[in-house]
Design goal:
Helix content: over 70%
Largest sheet: 2 strands, antiparallel
Radius of gyration: 25 Å
Structural class: mainly alpha
Number of strands: 2
Shape: elongated
Strand content: under 5%
Order of helices and strands: HHHHHEE
Distance between the termini: 41 Å
Strand order of the largest sheet: 1-2
């Protein structure tokens, strides 16, 4: 699988987004729990649970539960990068929102909104990239297939035996 597993593949993006989203989700749930320990360490808890989910998916790939060629180290790296980026964003939001006064609460709400908007922009940008790549792929396929058809028609002529031979 490693020879046929490019770094810049759609699969790697899905792994990145999966762990990025899970880290945000699990960290948010941990921050909202009534247990102080989980609230204090919500980013670590979210990151750990997201990494465990990514590792479980790779383990299931290796065992053949999904239609894939097995576990991939590149998938694991994409999972890890998704967790790291989400953790850094959450840590930045927590750092900027630190304060016990009213301005700190407003800043916290602003940062939550900023993180949400950033996530939406990243997902939208990636979706647009894939849409553009899909359109380019279709256009190139049509152009290349028409050129190949012209070459085939011009490059071969019927022989006396009825088969096509190269000119």
């Amino acid at each position: 699988m490693e020879d046929n597993d490019p770094w810049l593949a759609r699969d790697k993006l899905y792994h990145f987004l999966f762990c990025f989203s899970l880290t945000l989700l699990f960290s948010t749930f941990s921050a909202r729990t009534p247990y102080p320990f989980l609230r204090r360490h919500s980013i670590r808890v979210g990151s750990l649970l997201s990494l465990l989910a990514g590792a479980a998916k790779e383990f299931a790939d290796e065992l053949g539960f999904f239609h894939s060629a097995g576990a991939s180290a590149k998938d694991a790296v994409a999972n890890f990068l998704g967790v790291v980026v989400a953790s850094l964003l959450l840590s930045l939001a927590r750092y900027l929102a630190r304060s016990d006064n009213e301005a700190g609460r407003i800043k916290e709400l602003s940062m939550r909104l900023l993180v949400l908007v950033a996530c939406l922009l990243v997902h939208t940008f990636i979706g647009l990239l894939y849409l553009c790549s899909f359109v380019v792929k279709i256009c190139l396929t049509k152009v290349l297939s028409s050129h190949l058809l012209k070459l085939l028609v011009k490059g071969f002529s019927p022989s006396s035996s009825g088969s096509l031979t190269a000119v």
